[in-house]
């Protein structure tokens, strides 16, 4: 197997991110619940995309890209963080966003205005149209460009979360369960593959906040990332667990998600977001309620960020 360290990488974030016990919530649930603060990755307002971008933008640089394209909805945290990272590395970001969600100058749109980001909206639900539009703009500008898929969720981006699992292994505590949000799949796939490689005895649970076929996307991304690493392993359905926490729809707050945001804010002074981490934490609460965590087991919740969208969507 290839070492993660053999892949080109740019330094964007502050790592390792802290792991802390959620004292008040642990008392409430009668289980030991910890939080991994990937909301504190240190660029933009923090979040999970920074780990992926360290690998993706290294490839963009190596290929001589001057322009970086990416996409998502109007309030995409990933798009905002890509713009922040590209600017830091001296590249120009062009965000070709779906004209869906809150397009007003609030939340991530406001942050993009502060950075002077080139944002273009396309009125489509089809990513094929978006990638075509990127090529059209790229040709028009005549400069070398690099396209990052929605959420940075390809095999190379997922390596960021394989590395996060390795980081957790080095932080000293064993966790029986890790719970994270799953939106485009790279975070969950990376963590689940990373757990297989570096965290024996840890089960990773993806809390699905969108309606894509994650039962296919997750193992496929895991396989592709394992292939990049030349890791001779087979992915089976026992290597990951999924739970539908989407509620009324992607980026539409759910009552359970909003209650989880409020609980974390009230009891721990930590802010989750209504699109991803609130719904994911609601899933953790449901699992605790159902008895999914045995007495004495340790649970780690991945706080994947989302602060930008918090100010556009409320709770
Ligand atoms: C993108 C995002 C996720 C989901 O991660 P994926 O790798 O896209 O599944 C979770 N939380 C936040 C805050 C995000 O911005």
In short:
By secondary structure, this protein is an alpha/beta fold. Helices cover 43% and strands 16% of the residues. Helix 8 (214-228) links the parallel strand 8 and strand 9 (241-244).
Summarize the topology.
Blueprint: E1 19-21, H1 23-29, E2 32-37, H2 49-62, E3 67-70, H3 77-88, E4 92-98, H4 108-115, E5 118-122, H5 127-141, E6 145-147, H6 155-169, E7 177-182, H7 186-198, E8 203-208, H8 214-228, E9 241-244, H9 255-268, H10 277-290, E10 298-303, H11 307-313
Parallel strand pairs: 2-10, 3-4, 3-6, 4-5, 7-8, 7-10, 8-9
Antiparallel strand pairs: 1-2
Bound molecules: pyridoxal-5'-phosphate.
User: Which class of secondary structure composition applies to the elements?
Assistant: alpha/beta
Shape: globular
Compressed to H and E, one letter per element, the order equals EHEHEHEHEHEHEHEHEHHEH
Helix content: 40-55%
Q: In angstroms, what separates the terminal alpha carbons?
A: 44 Å
Cα-atom Rg, whole angstroms? 18 Å
Beta content:
15-25%
Extended strand count: 10
Mean pLDDT: 97
Low-confidence stretches: none
What is the multimeric organization of the chains shown?
Answer: single chain
How many strands, which pairing sense, and closed or not: the largest β-sheet? 6 strands, mixed
Spatial ordering of strands, largest sheet:
1-2-10-7-8-9
- Attached small molecules: pyridoxal-5'-phosphate
Q: What is the overall number of helices?
A: 11
């Amino acid at each position: 197997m290839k070492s993660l360290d053999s892949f080109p990488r740019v330094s964007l974030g502050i790592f390792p991110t802290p792991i802390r016990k959620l004292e008040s919530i642990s008392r409430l649930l009668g289980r030991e619940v910890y939080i991994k603060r990937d909301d504190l990755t240190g660029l933009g307002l923090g979040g999970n995309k920074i780990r992926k971008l360290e690998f993706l933008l290294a490839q963009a640089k190596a290929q001589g890209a001057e322009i970086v394209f990416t996409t998502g909805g109007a309030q995409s945290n990933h798009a905002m963080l890509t713009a922040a990272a590209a600017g830091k590395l001296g590249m120009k970001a062009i965000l070709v966003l779906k004209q869906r969600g809150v397009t007003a100058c609030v939340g991530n749109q406001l942050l993009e205005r502060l950075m002077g980001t080139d944002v273009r909206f396309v009125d489509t639900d089809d990513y094929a149209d978006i990638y075509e539009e990127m090529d059209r703009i790229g040709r028009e500008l005549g400069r070398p460009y690099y396209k990052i898929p929605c959420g940075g969720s390809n095999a190379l981006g997922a390596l960021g979360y394989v590395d996060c699992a390795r980081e957790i292994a080095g932080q000293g505590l064993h966790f029986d369960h890790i719970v994270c949000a799953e939106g485009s799949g790279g975070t969950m796939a990376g963590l689940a593959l990373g757990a297989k490689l570096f965290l024996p005895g840890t089960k990773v649970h993806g809390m699905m906040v969108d309606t894509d076929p994650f039962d296919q996307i997750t193992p496929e991304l895991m396989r592709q990332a394992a292939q990049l690493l030349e890791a001779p392993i087979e992915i089976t359905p026992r290597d990951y667990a999924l739970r539908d926490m989407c509620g009324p729809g992607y980026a539409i707050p759910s009552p359970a998600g909003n209650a989880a945001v409020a609980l974390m804010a009230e009891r721990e002074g930590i802010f989750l977001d209504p699109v991803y981490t609130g719904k994911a934490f609601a899933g953790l609460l449901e699992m605790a309620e159902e008895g999914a965590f045995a007495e004495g087991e340790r649970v780690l919740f991945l706080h994947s960020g989302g602060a930008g969208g918090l100010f556009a969507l409320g709770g």
